Amino acid sequence: MDKKPDMNRRNFLKVSGITTATVALGTTGILSLNANSNKAFAGSAPSKGSFGGYGPLVKDPGGVMNLPQGFQYRIVSEEGKNLSDGRPIPGMFDGMAAFPGKNNTTVLVRNHELDGNTDNPVVGKNPYDKENTGGTTSLIVGNDRTVHKEYVTSSGTIRNCAGGATPWGTWITCEETLETGHGYVFEVDPHDPESNLSRTPIREMGSFSHEAVDVDPATGIVYLTEDDSPESYFYRFVPKDRSQKIGSLHKGGTLQAAAFEEMSSNHMSEYYSSQKLGVVWKDVDPEKPTLDAHNKGCIRFSRLEGCHFVSGVFWFSDTDAGEKELGRVYRYIPATNTLEIFYESTTDNDLEAPDNVTITPWGDLWIVEDGSASDRIIGLTPEGETYLFAENVLNNSEMAGPTFSPDGKTLFVNIQSPGLTLAIWGPFSRRNAARGRMMGHAAPPENYGPWISDNLASFAEVQGISTLEAAALNRHGMPIV
Question: What is the pLDDT of residues 407-458, one digit of tens each?
Fold first, then answer.
């Protein structure tokens, strides 16, 4: 995506009152007051905590990442430097997940969205297809946030964009491609790198332009998003073997696409925020799921991106959906088979091109942008507050793969190009599973629904319909009198 500067975005979220202050960047790659300090004290006001954010961002004179006061970062991995075995660290960092390792370490698994010729390919010893340059790497990171080991975990794939962690400790990496013989998902065990498991596609999970996946730990069902344009579908895979063990997904299952139960249109663009829509699932052919989903009238999205399953709720984003084509975030609840438009951006100051999403250990929804200007991490709270946590000021490359260490004390996130993995820490709120459950059922932010005029509200009342339904009719050309 071509990116153009947009200085107005520095004024994001009037309710946040964002300002900047100045600190100095030490030569160690840690945001700090001076080269000899390992602490960061940005500005004069203390962090507020997650109930409304952590306060204004502080300008990073090192020119990498603006963060709130009290937070600091370290660059733990950099494209083109050396893996532990001397091979180059591949480029195009993307999706990522964190797992507990030995001796309180964190094991990261990271995607590389590579295809064709590249300066820094994934060079593997047991590739799926030796002609291709994508794949995954892993990092073992200590409590001191330094890398103990960095190594290739899978190779020979194409455009490993996002993916998802499994409850049993593996990573599902996704190929975002329609190239023949590709467009699959692969299971990667970071503790058994470059094994035959990592080079065996899970064919029954579909051949299409995959983006992201996540697993419902209560049922073992896998939910998948498709990054394709102009048609993109929302899938689930129902495994035959629901033991939730390494390799169980390879035993087959049924691929299905979401469809509306009783709605007049299958185009998601025709629905507004706060609407809860009933969903049914239709079996589709895993060899041609996009075509089959189209023919069966399944829900048609714009271009789906990242996802996260937590506390019984599946969150996922659509990067250019909505009336202003600035993106949406959806919330699907399997227990009730309901789909809701949770968040629709109407200005790029609020949100532009949502990509990866995650729920923080303390229960906030975090959205990472892939827009036309410098990209940010935006937080929404169960209490209805919005805030800005981080901004990439190095370049206009997307941030990707936000994931927290198992203890919740460190955020790892990538800048895609040139590839950098950052460890960020500071006064994060304490783990709070109850707020995570609250987020799954919180009301959508009121200011992100459609604006309703007095005439439109009166029309809705006379017709006996909701204001959202009236807004949808008006949007599609029905005269409102």
Answer: 999 999 999 999 999 999 999 999 999 999 999 999 877 654 444 556 766 7
Single pTM value for the model: 0.85
Gap between the Cα atoms of 450 and 472, Å rounded? 9
401 closest CA partner among 387, 412, 388, 389: 412
How many C-beta neighbours within 10 Å does residue 35 have?
11
Q: Are 449 and 468 contacting, i.e. CB atoms less than 8 angstroms apart?
A: yes
Which residue reads 């299958």 in tokens? 266
Vertex 65, ends 389 and 414: CA angle to 5°?
Answer: 90
Q: What is the pLDDT of residues 98-109, one digit of tens each?
A: 999 999 999 999
Judge whether residue 285 has pLDDT over 70: yes
Rounded distance, CA 374 to CA 55, Å? Answer: 19
DSSP of 200-237, one letter per residue?
A: S--GGG-SSBEEEEEE-TTT--EEEEE--SS-B-EEEE
Instruction: Specify the higher pLDDT residue, 44 or 147.
Output: 147
Distance of alpha carbon 92 from alpha carbon 117, whole angstroms: 13
Query: What is the chain's mean pLDDT, rounded?
Result: 86
Half-sphere exposure of residue 222: CA atoms within 13 angstroms, side-chain side? 35
Cβ-proximal residues to 86 (8 Å cutoff; 6+ apart), any chain: none
